[in-house]
Amino acid sequence: MVWISPGWGILETPRVELSSKDQQGLFESIVGISTGMRRAGITLYNINPVGSGGGVMKSYYKDFVKGVKTANQVRIGNVALQVFTYQSGGLVLNSSNDLAAEITTCVNDANAFYMLSFEGAIGDGPNEYHALEVKVDKPGLEARTRSGYYAQPDQIQKP
C-alpha cells in the first residue's frame, strides 16, 4: 500500500505527556493496526509529497521504530505513519517531491520479494510482542521485513 502524506503531525508535536489511560488506548491501537496489517499481508510505503524540508525530522521517526511491549512504554511517536511503515517492512521516502519517481521506487521494491513463514509462538499473555529479524549473509544486500508481531495466549499466530 502506498500512502502519500507527510504523516499525521505527531512527530512535529512537542513532547507530549500521556496518561496511563492514553498509553493503554494507544497500545491497543498499535496492536490492532500491526496485527491487522500483518494478517492482511500489507506492506506500507510512505511518500512525503513535499520532500524532507528539515534534516533532523527526516529520520526522527527512527527513534520510535522498536516495538513496544507494554502500554507503559508507549510514546506518541509510536503511532506515527512512518513508524508503521518501517515496522511493516516498507519504505519511508521523504527526500524528494517527485511523486512519479517515488511511486516507481515503491512498485519496484514491492515486486522483488521472498515470502518466509513460520509458526509463531503462543503468547504467555495477551499482546505479547515478539521481535523479528532477518539477516542476509551477503554484503550490500538488505532484508526488510516486519519488525515484530503481537502473539496471543490462546491462538498460534502466523507472522
Give a structural overview.
It is a single chain. This protein is of the alpha/beta class. The chain has one domain (2-114). Helix content is 29%, strand content 10%. It is built from four helices and five strands. It has helices spanning 20-40, 55-59, 81-88, 99-110; strands spanning 2-4, 45-47, 92-93, 128-131, 148-151. It has a three-stranded parallel sheet. A two-stranded antiparallel ribbon has the order 4-5. The longest helix has 21 residues, at 20-40. The radius of gyration is 16 Å and the shape is globular. The two termini are 18 Å apart.
Taken from the alpha-carbon principal axes, the silhouette is globular
Order of helices and strands: EHEHHEHEE
Taken as a percent bin, the fraction of beta residues is 5-15%
Radius of gyration, in Å, reads 16 Å
Enumerate how many helices there are, as a single number: 4
Order of strands in the sheet with most strands: 1-2-3
Q: Determine the fraction of residues in helical runs and give it as a percent range.
A: 25-40%
Stretches where pLDDT is under 50 for at least 5 consecutive residues are none
Q: Could you give the count of β-strands?
A: 5
User: Structural class of the secondary structure composition?
Assistant: alpha/beta
Biggest sheet architecture: 3 strands, parallel
Distance from first to last alpha carbon: 18 Å
